[in-house]
Amino acid sequence: SSGINAEYGEINWIIVHSLKAVQGVMASDKHCFECYGYDVIIDENMKPWLIEVNASPSLTSTTAADRIMKYTLIDDVLKIICPNGEIPDPRWNKVPPKDSMGHFDLLIDEELAAQDQHENKSRSVSGRLPRTRPQQQWK
Questions:
Q1: Average pLDDT over residues 36-55
Q2: 95: which residues sit within 8 A by CB, 6+ positions away?
């Protein structure tokens, strides 16, 4: 069980790092979203390797498990973009409530990362140590 959690944690960081690598060329518009499909292979030593990222992954299915996964993905996306089944106000610029996030996990909190970066800069100027944060537990 802890081995599986570690593998998911490594896969999550592969996703985070791949997105950070291209964040400068990604569209950033609060009125749209993109869905990426990640192909990851796990070797004999249980190390995950990123094979490719699909900018427009196919939503056709070939098996019952595939159909359930893609249905759940579409359902979760709709819950985020239309919370409570309502068309959102285009001026609304907030993070959806946690209960509407479906099966999605927050992989990185950019506000927290920016705060840590600011604290690290302050430390280098003043010699103070930044606050430490508990490491995130992966599901």
A1: 93
A2: none
* Closest by CA position to 59, among listed 41, 82, 78, 35: 35
Is 70 exposed, middle or buried (CB count within 10 Å of its CB: 0-12, 13-18, 19+)? middle
Supply 103's token pair. Answer: 């099966």
User: Cα separation of 15 and 8, whole Å?
Assistant: 10
The answer, yes or no, to whether residue 124 has pLDDT greater than 70, is no
DSSP secondary structure letter of residue 58: -
Q: How far apart are CA 46 and CA 6, in angstroms?
A: 10
> C-alpha 96: how far from its chain's center?
14
Alpha helices in 1-139 (DSSP H): 2-22, 64-81, 110-126
φ and ψ of 106, to 5 deg: -75, 115
What's the confidence (pLDDT) of residue 71? 93
Asked if residue 93 lies in contact with residue 30, where contact means CB atoms within 8 angstroms, the answer is yes
CA nearest to 104, candidates 62, 75, 67 = 75
Which amino acid, 25? Answer: V
